[in-house]
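Everyone, describe these structure tokens:
***
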Amino acid sequence: MDRRVFLKTAASAAMVAASPCESFASAWPKDRPIRAVVPFSPGASIDIIGRICADAVSRRIGQTIVVMNRGGAGGTLGADYVAKSDPDGYTLLIQASNQTIAPAIYKHLPYDTLKDFSGVAIFGTVPNVLLVSPRSGYKSVQELVAKAKTKDIFFSSSGVGSASHWAAERFRISAGFKATHVPMKSGLEALTEVIANRIDFCCIGTSAAMAFIQGKQVDALCVTADTRSASLPDVPTSVELGYKDSVYNFWNGALLPAKTPRAIVDRLYKEITASLADPEVKRKLVAQGVEPSPVTPTEFDAQMRREVEENKKIARAAGLQLR
């Protein structure tokens, strides 16, 4: 065959092979709203952050993004809904790092955490803050830990497998004390129990805690992070207080069903990244205690694979039984 004819034929074949995906992606989004599923109740950190980002992306792409709250089972109900949705770019998951906790908690998940999702972008990370009631008598983390080693204490969370549960477990294991976990239906309920001094402590994201800290309804004893939070610069980190391996990386981001065309994944990543660079969006996220944590979709997938294995180790150390 003539070389020029061969090259022309090969190029035409490549264009035909690529055209369905490319045309589908270039037409996205059409005159049709996008569903953004938040697998937790309204008012949770991921709900607040997700709505800020969804609104910004909506303005950029000129299409409505409807945020839907589908809470329950540590975020797995909403995740399952997205995993089983059509991979057409019109249903996405606004999720937190509990996505990679689920395999360490649930024996029979209705989806595969890694195989059924494609990571798109991380909006940022939110430091978890350890909170107690001003009436508790605990003036420092050291006092709380010392008391926990002499008597039974309790901690609350927004549910088994939630980020607030995991942050507290990781700190507890690091500090070497036992405590009884009291799972609630939401982060707000978990916090309310601490405010009322019925529960000793909880660890929740700064975005959900800031108003209560500023209102002096709770005391912040430490941030379970490597570095101090810009939102709480006077609050020490658990690491600087000597609690090694107490850090829990609480990311917030967007995922799509795994078979979503890569062109759509990349387009959404581009729009989210541009939205996060907007000064007004930055201001809103900083007010929620969100700290930048940029990763590409490929890096996001790799991070989730690492976390799944790390979280299984934490579950074993905590003596948690699969549900």
Observations:
- The chain is about 45% helix and 15% strand.
- Confidence is low (pLDDT under 50) at residues 5-21.
- Strands lie at 34-38, 65-69, 91-96, 117-125, 128-132, 154-157, 180-183, 201-205, 219-223, 251-257.
- The chain has two domains: 30-126+250-318, 128-223.
